[in-house]
Known about the structure:
- By secondary structure, the protein is an all-alpha fold.
- It is 61% helix and 0% strand.
- The longest helix is centred in the middle third of the chain and has 31 residues, at 98-128.
- It has helices at residues 10-20, 25-32, 36-44, 51-61, 65-70, 98-128, 135-164.
- 14% of the residues are buried.
- It is built from 7 helices and no strands.
Amino acid sequence: MEPMVDFTYLDKNIRFLRKQMNLSQEELALKIGLNRGNIASYENGTAEPKVCNLLRLSRLFGVSICDLAQRDLSGDEVPCSNGNGHAKKAQLVEPQNPEVLNIIHSNAQRKLQMMEGLVTCSRLKLEQVHTQIPPELQLIIVNFEELYRTARSLMDEHLSLLKSLNCKDSSANE
């Protein structure tokens, strides 16, 4: 099975970005809650960070996890020290393919319609039940409604993000 993320540039990028921020391995380790040996292992390629540490590194460096792992950042505009120990955010966002964004948006709209259809169907069926609903079923109904609210909130955020990427969004809040 192929790994989901190709860590081709991870070791080089961690070293490069750390040096751009004028941090020692020890200082970087302290900033993300590790020890110097962890950073040394990441930089020499003998270990790969756990997801939580990868996320901390990407946030500190101001780059996406994908860019940190898969792009050679040494030639890009990257964070650099501004004299007070803070780093400027990298400008590494590539222009997105509008066709891909439109496909993602279309898929999200279809999933939203499917989700709304399921909820409507289940609510109609509940209205038709004229008998006492057993406690076990009541718990399932409550959990289903909570799951729906959470999924709807996530879908709204997803569509909002797509809209911010200049993707058409005609009915995210309908």
